[in-house]
């Protein structure tokens, strides 16, 4: 089929799903369609301005960049026009028929029959162009890419059901007109004052003029009629370049929604004019909810880079460290060259200074929330932590220069609160440390219950010593960088010998010495039975209830980390654990006098310890058989 003929094409399956979801979820907030389409128009103009830096001919004698909104009560249409970069035929097919965001499939898979949940999800996703279908049952897009001849214009049309059509048209002016054919019952939008009010509410801060035809008094009909003169409806200057004092919170919030397409308000923001060696404006936001693709570390950052008010690029990842990839906003540099590329950004000293400065600002913003006496701000920090805490933890390893500051912002579950809620800081912990205690104790485990019930916790429970409970995937990695805080070492309760004796009283110390001699022979025998499975066997003061537990040597990887690495398919060096035995446990005591079944008991105690710390047995069937034999013995029935 010739390209000039009208072609019908199907939407990508994800688009169909998104459209359905969106129309249902956003029905109560319909007017945002205009903000979304104006944002796209403003992006298209930004892109033109940037490409025209190199190719001035793209301006095509039409250098006055602007957005125009018009409407027709007769045809029941609203049209959003821009003289931006426009779209070629292929671009229209690619951009208006598919969703390019990575992770969309996973996002859509999370949809459920619960409308409330879906509403929240769509907020995180951002709806963009497709939001036009909330109020329109047909959308016509006419566009021509800057630089292409007039004969290369395109018309794209769809009712938002399953497919769209594209055809070539003649179009003299570059840029895009998006015409919404309103659904039945949406005629409210077809007045000058309503559209103006929506533009002022949502798009006042857009740095380009948004124009509409002025209304004039018509003497003949004695009504207001659309005239012929254009007026600019918004303030049309860059919000981030204005003085803080002149910007309302509402304007900050709307600007956030404009740049992110997020339907929620931001959690917090920081706006600064930085002067000195490098000069730049920054307006940085923390969202209220994590985006659906937060875990994709390859996801580009959320910072728009401008140079002297000219948009340069989206997602300038060099401007923010990866662990702050949830931060959205604008950085406008006065020093970078206008023709800056991603490659130049990587090497630029200015960029390095901007990144460092911005990182500091974000950390300060978080500290202000975390340390505030105002309960509402503290609550915001809790929200932040629940959404982004795990990502912030990456910073402990990624940003050595700010490690101490980040560590101060961390929140953990703790035995002090006896709950899995992560709300205890390292400073809280230190303030509660016992006089004789020199280390900050923590446990890592697969989940909260496993951690809480681990044999490693017994001595700490007995002594009333607080233990932080770490169960996030990133924790083991983070801990390899966070070995000390405020001159206190962090120590795993499952690793090393922990100076536990320092915490014991005189009586316990004496008892321990006696136990060491008492169990000397038993331990030697156990070592012979277990052979290469263990590094050592020793008497412990760690246990009160369990007979045995496994400990990783101080310098080895923890058992939990070894398991995680294995689960991720990585090769783990063979690090043998230390078996610790509880001298007060009846089974361990009876071992001293056991002869015939000594090997079986030893193997059983070792396997139990593996299971208790969440490990997998090398030969589970042998364990079950052994245990059953011993159970049979204990009930007086002979095993084979
Ligand atoms: N007015 C326009 N001029 C030129 N291209 C446009 C215009 N509107 C949309 N597009 C193109 O269509 C693409 C898809 O738009 P859409 O709003 O769905 O998503 P987006 O803007 O890329 O993402 P998000 O909405 O999350 O910011 C845009 O990235 C852009 O390439």
From TrEMBL:
ATP binds at residues 36, 40, 82, 87, 101-103, 124-129, 176, 342. It is found in: Cytoplasm. Residues 1-342 are annotated as: A. InterPro entries: HATPase_C_sf, HATPase_dom, Heat_shock_protein_90_CS, HSP90_C, Hsp90_fam, Hsp90_N, Ribosomal_Su5_D2-typ_SF. SMART domains: HATPase_c. GO terms for cellular component: cytoplasm. GO terms for molecular function: ATP binding; ATP hydrolysis activity; ATP-dependent protein folding chaperone; unfolded protein binding. Gene3D superfamilies: 3.30.230.80, 3.40.50.11260, Heat shock protein 90, C-terminal domain, Histidine kinase-like ATPase, C-terminal domain. PROSITE patterns: HSP90. Residues 564-640 are annotated as: C. It comes from the Bacteria. Residues 29-186 form the Histidine kinase/HSP90-like ATPase domain. Pfam families: HATPase_c_3 (PF13589), HSP90 (PF00183). The keyword Chaperone applies. Keywords: ATP-binding, Chaperone, Cytoplasm, Nucleotide-binding, Stress response. SUPFAM superfamilies: ATPase domain of HSP90 chaperone/DNA topoisomerase II/histidine kinase, HSP90 C-terminal domain, Ribosomal protein S5 domain 2-like. Belongs to the heat shock protein 90 family. Molecular chaperone. Has ATPase activity. Homodimer. PANTHER family: HEAT SHOCK PROTEIN 90 FAMILY MEMBER. This is Chaperone protein HtpG. It comes from Oxalobacter formigenes OXCC13. The lineage of its organism: Bacteria, Pseudomonadati, Pseudomonadota, Betaproteobacteria, Burkholderiales. The gene is htpG.
């Amino acid at each position: 089929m010739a390209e000039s003929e009208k072609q019908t094409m199907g939407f990508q399956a994800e688009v169909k799903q998104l459209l359905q979801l969106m129309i249902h979820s956003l029905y109560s907030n319909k007017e945002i369609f205009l903000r979304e389409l104006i944002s796209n128009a403003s992006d298209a103009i930004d892109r033109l301005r940037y490409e025209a830096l190199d190719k001035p001919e793209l301006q095509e004698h039409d250098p006055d960049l602007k957005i125009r909104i018009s409407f027709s009560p007769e045809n029941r249409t609203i049209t959003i026009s821009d003289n931006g970069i426009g779209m070629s035929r292929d671009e229209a097919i690619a951009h208006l028929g598919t969703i390019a965001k990575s992770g969309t499939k996973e996002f859509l898979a999370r949809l459920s029959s619960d409308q409330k949940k879906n509403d929240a999800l769509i907020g995180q996703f951002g709806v963009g162009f497709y939001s036009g279908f909330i109020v329109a049952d047909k959308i016509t897009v006419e566009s021509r890419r800057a630089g292409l001849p007039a004969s290369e214009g395109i018309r794209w049309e769809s009712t938002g059901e399953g497919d769209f059509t594209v055809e070539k048209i003649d179009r003299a002016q570059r840029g895009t007109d998006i015409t919404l054919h309103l659904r039945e019952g949406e005629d409210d939008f077809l007045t000058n004052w309503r559209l103006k009010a929506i533009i002022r509410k949502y798009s006042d801060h857009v740095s380009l003029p948004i124009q509409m035809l002025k209304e004039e008094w018509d003497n003949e009909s004695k009504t207001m009629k659309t005239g012929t003169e254009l007026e600019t409806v918004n303030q049309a200057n860059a919000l981030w370049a204005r003085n803080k004092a002149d910007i309302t919170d509402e304007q900050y919030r709307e600007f956030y929604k404009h740049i992110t397409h997020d339907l929620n308000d931001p959690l917090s923001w920081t706006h600064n004019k930085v002067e000195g060696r490098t000069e730049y404006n920054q307006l940085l936001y923390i969202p209220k909810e994590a985006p659906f693709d937060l875990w994709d570390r390859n996801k580009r950052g959320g910072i728009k880079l401008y140079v002297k008010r000219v948009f340069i690029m989206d997602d300038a990842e060099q401007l923010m460290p990866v662990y702050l990839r949830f931060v959205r906003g604008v950085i406008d540099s006065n020093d970078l060259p206008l023709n800056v590329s991603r490659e130049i950004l990587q090497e630029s000293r200015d960029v390095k200074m901007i990144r460092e400065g911005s990182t500091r600002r974000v950390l300060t913003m978080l500290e202000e929330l975390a340390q505030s006496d105002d309960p509402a701000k503290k609550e915001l920090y809790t929200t932040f932590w629940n959404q982004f805490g795990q990502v912030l933890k990456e910073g402990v390893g990624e940003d050595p220069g700010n490690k101490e500051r980040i560590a101060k912002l961390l929140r953990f579950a703790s035995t002090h609160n006896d709950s899995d809620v992560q709300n205890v800081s390292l400073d809280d912990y230190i303030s509660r440390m016992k006089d004789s205690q020199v280390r900050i104790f923590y446990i890592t485990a697969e989940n909260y219950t496993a951690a809480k019930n681990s044999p490693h916790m017994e001595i700490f429970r007995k002594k009333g010593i607080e233990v932080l409970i770490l169960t996030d995937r990133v924790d083991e990695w983070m801990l390899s960088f966070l070995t000390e805080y405020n001159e206190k070492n962090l120590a795993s309760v499952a690793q090393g010998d922990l100076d536990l004796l320092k915490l014991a009283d005189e009586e316990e110390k004496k008892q321990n010495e006696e136990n060491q001699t008492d169990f000397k022979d038993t331990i030697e025998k156990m070592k012979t039975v277990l052979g290469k499975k263990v590094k050592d066997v020793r008497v412990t003061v760690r246990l009160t209830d369990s007979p045995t537990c496994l400990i990783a040597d101080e310098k080895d990887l923890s058992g939990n980390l070894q398991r995680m690495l294995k689960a991720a398919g990585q090769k783990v060096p063979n690090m043998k654990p230390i078996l610790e035995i509880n001298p007060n446990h009846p089974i361990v005591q009876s071992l001293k006098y056991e002869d015939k079944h000594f090997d079986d008991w030893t193997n059983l105690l070792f396997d139990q310890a593996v299971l208790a710390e969440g490990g997998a047995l090398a030969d589970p069937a042998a364990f079950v058989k052994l245990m059953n034999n011993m159970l049979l013995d204990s009930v007086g029935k002979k095993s084979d």
